[in-house]
Design a protein that fits this description.
Strand 1 (45-46) and strand 2 form a beta hairpin. This protein is 48% helix and 4% strand. The relative contact order is 0.07. It is mostly helical. Helix 4 packs across helix 5 (86-103). It starts with 13 loop residues before the first helix and ends with a helix. It has a two-stranded antiparallel sheet.
């Protein structure tokens, strides 16, 4: 487990954007080809069972990412607005669009 309290960090925003500060730290400070981000109280579910390492490795043979199904009652975009406000949301959303369009344009419709 790695802490985000060193290197290039936005840990001061942790109380507002939680795991995204850790994701930022990974992006700016880690050179490993494979990284993961997991909340300490939340786990991926696979047909009612906790997703274990071997199952995840099997899934990753055919896919580039494992993502959860959201169950917040609102979209990820709406959640960002609720947590950081519309100004930060607009800036972040536009940056997400640029990055997705550049590196994985086939996922742009799904993101939106």
């Amino acid at each position: 487990m790695q802490s985000e309290d060193n290197g290039l960090s936005i840990i001061k925003y942790n109380n507002r954007i939680n795991e995204l500060t850790g994701l930022y730290w990974i992006w700016k400070n880690d050179n490993n080809p494979y990284v993961g981000l997991s909340h300490y109280r939340r786990y991926f579910n696979n047909n009612g069972m906790r997703l274990e390492k071997l199952d995840a490795q099997k899934i990753m043979q055919n896919y580039d990412i494992i993502a959860s199904y959201h169950s917040l009652g609102w979209s990820v975009h709406e959640n960002i607005i609720k947590t950081v406000g519309t100004t930060v949301d607009t800036i972040a959303y536009n940056e997400f669009i640029k990055v997705i369009n550049k590196y994985q344009p086939q996922y742009l419709d799904s993101f939106q």
